[in-house]
Design brief:
Immunoglobulin-like; 4-stranded mixed beta sheet; single chain; 18 strands; alpha+beta; 3 domains; 44% strand; 217 residues
Amino acid sequence: MSKGPSSIRRSSLASFKTHRWTLVSLLLVAAFAVSCGKFFPDANSLVAISVTPSNASLQLTKTQQFTAIGSFGDGTSKDISSSASWSSSDATVATINSSGLASAIKTGTTTITANQSGQSGSTTLTVTTGGGGNLTISCTAGCTSTSGTSFTASVGSTLTFRAQDSSGQTVNATWTSSNPNIPITANTGIITNAASGTTTITATANGITGTGTLTVQ
């Protein structure tokens, strides 16, 4: 006996429901597989990077070796310093080479970052003058005489000053002059076309200061 229309419709509906639940099951399996990959990564996959030493401080012209430690999906960790890609957020403060060795250039703060396989880790590096104490000011060009931190120069001359910390390292200081008629360039320590008079020159770097007296005649 042939099936009637209603019987055929019921059979088709049952088949549709069966296929629908099969499709839903497959989607659930796929979603579970993806979530397992997300929350339970492959044992060999890199999941995190930490950079040491943390928040390091470095004196001018010195170097600091950083280490990148990679954490993997199986819970192990190892040194990946030689294979990671290193960078410094401010290369004017400190540079870093391909093996993680940073070199201090000027006072300031930069972020040191190690990258590999889509993962990254970072820490801060602060470059200081080192040694504490005060800055020592010297005249490196243009002065006619020097006695300690007292300087003499001729009217109309161009003068160059330098600041050093207590360890003898030259620092990038901010300069000021107490006499507005004898101005000094703030970021270079240079006086051009010096006018007659006396002024106190001050250098400041990283919270440390030094002073000198200039007489132009």
